[in-house]
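[Automated response] Your request has been received and processed.

Submitted sequence:
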Amino acid sequence: MAVAQNRLNPPGGSTKPSLLGRLLGTHTRFQTHRALWGYVFALPWILGLIIFWGGPILASFYFSFTNYEIIGSPKWLGLANYTRAFTQDDLFWPSLWRTFKFTFLYAPATIVGSILLASLLNQKLKGTNIYRTIFFMPHLIPAVALAVVWVFLLQPKLGPVNAILRDLGVENPPAWLAARSSALYSLTMISIWAAVGGNTMLIFLAGLQGVPQELYEAADIDGASSARKFWHVTLPLLSPTVFLNMVLIIIASLKVFNTAWVATKGGPSYATWFFALHIYNEAFAYFRLGYGSALAWVLALILIIFTWIQVVYSRRWVHYEGG
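Generated structure:
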């Protein structure tokens, strides 16, 4: 701006700013004023982020190196909590393995189910909007209410599911959530059912609607079947959406808590005792906040590692349009 003003007001000339110079100065002040008000309106969110997110995160990181049980001051232990978790906690490795097992079952099934459901709901059929609403409605029900309903449905003796199976001739129907051998798989089934028609499906639906129709028309001219069009046209262009949903789903599955806590409390016989339940139990049942914070940071590190692996390997299979 100064260069422009110097050109408009050469040395030896009039020192009075030109009209263009005054306009540029007014525009700059307006932009500064606007930016300032933007920060003012964003200040409540920024303060909330610092106070209610940043503060607790830093506090938990400090507590993870201490023995803190609410009553009394934290006592510095160094790495003792982490050493205890990896070498002395009998529930650490089993709960972690159980969480990984749940993730390996839940994530692929949710991705595949959501893509198939989104593809069906993307068909230009009569009443499609009604079908979309029906499939999304279960996602609006709180997780606690869903878990309570499924506990009733899968009750071994009086539940409607086993009653129907007995009517169909099944003499010994599964005990579902009440048996150690089937509790984890039953809980996984409930979680998949709740997730397939939710936000994951909506994101895939938005991605499918962004695929250019010209590509399908070109594939039709070449005589491609529906399966080939899906594999060679839809999936490559949908790969960024698959990557996004995969990251979100794996993070959510590693933090699984609500359904397991309401439906089984981690039982029977620790069959659904996930890592998040272990953190909750140590921190809020036994009030070992220092040790619970250490477990939470272990989970945070696992989430970071899994996300980093996905980001690195996404370069091999994620195709961006025009990239």
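Summary generated for your ticket: The first strand starts at residue 66 and ends at 67. Residues 1-5 have pLDDT under 50 and may be disordered.
If you did not submit this request, please reply to this message.
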